[in-house]
Amino acid sequence: MAANGGAGNDMKGKTVLVTGATNGIGKVAARTLASLGARVVIVGRDPAKTAEVAREIGADSYLVADLSVMSEVRRAAAEFRDREPRLDVLLNNAGAVVGRRQETPEGVEMTWALNHLNYFLLTQELLPPLQAAPGARVVNVSSSVHTSGRMRWDDLEFRRGYSAIGAYSQSKLANVLFTRELSRRLSGSGVSANALHPGFVRTGFGHNNGGLMSRVIGLMSTFALSDEQGAQTSLYLASSPEVQGVSGRYFDRQQEAKPAPQALDDAAAARLWSVSEEYVNRAEGSRTI
Ligand SMILES: NC(=O)c1ccc[n+]([C@@H]2O[C@H](COP(=O)([O-])OP(=O)(O)OC[C@H]3O[C@@H](n4cnc5c(N)ncnc54)[C@H](OP(=O)(O)O)[C@@H]3O)[C@@H](O)[C@H]2O)c1
Q1: Which candidate in 62, 168, 236, 250 is catalytic?
Q2: Is residue 107 domain-resident?
Q3: How many domains does the chain have?
Q4: Is 1 a domain residue?
Q5: CATH number of the CATH domain containing 251
Q6: Structure confidence by residue, pLDDT tens digits, 40-97
Q7: Structural domain boundaries, residue 165
Q8: At what angle do helices 164-185 and 266-280 cross, to 10 degrees?
Q9: In terms of pTM, does the model score above 0.70?
Q10: Which residues line ligand 1 (CB under 6 A)?
């Protein structure tokens, strides 16, 4: 186990894309990867904030997209592909807990769209530049909350009895199942995929939607990790030589950990993949592996 996720790892010559890099653990991860020599591209939803953060952390460039909207995910990925021939690390990190049920402009429940479909589609759309980079890595930020998640196959968008924690834990379970199936499909391609729990971290997380969830997170945050500490497992998976070629696993505190039994269900992982394809393929002309 590395004592410090990114410390000492050389990222010179590598191109990295980080989502949710305008705040919290994504911002620390992006800044650290830039300081290790990577060419960092960040994705943010607010143009002024994203430009400002890109300057502040020494990112090479930035893309603006609301990642809960699949047409914007596609556009951002196309802009990336137009500019960059290869992608060494994709850090899927943007996520939120959504206090009251909301739908995106495309009519999809917000937690499902942002926390899961965004990871799924962005990864698909960036496979050509990932496959062009030797030993490329996809790093998916999940949460230990996935252990209380279950897939509500008959109501993935929580149309009945919305619960912020239910929707969130389902989406974080989906992150681990997605990683498992992605890794299986990418076997032999040279691209690895791993998921992680960052720890309970004092970030902007859970504060943007009001309600009981914000208050509970506020009370618990005295015990939380700093965002520097919370970024360490993402940095470890993005940059450590120790995990080169390791794929389909789940990490916590820079160590492989056992995910919940429902996250090891291959049939559920395959089912999630086809359901997710149906969601993202509602827009014409898309293609998945
Ligand atoms: N904090 C924890 O204790 C904890 C624990 C387990 C897992 N996680 C996971 O860690 C990841 C990062 O969370 P964090 O704690 O760093 O939270 P955060 O401080 O709230 O940062 C979330 C990031 O996601 C971005 N984002 C939110 N909605 C977006 C959208 N529609 N389109 C594009 N970007 C969007 C935010 O952009 P803005 O700056 O514009 O808001 C921000 O950059 C999430 O996947 C979360 O599930 C966190």
Answers
A1: 168
A2: yes
A3: 1
A4: no
A5: 3.40.50.720
A6: 999 999 999 999 999 999 999 999 999 999 999 999 999 999 999 999 999 999 999 9
A7: 15-279
A8: 100
A9: yes
A10: 20, 22-26, 44-46, 49, 66-68, 93-96, 114, 141, 143, 197-198, 200-201, 203-205
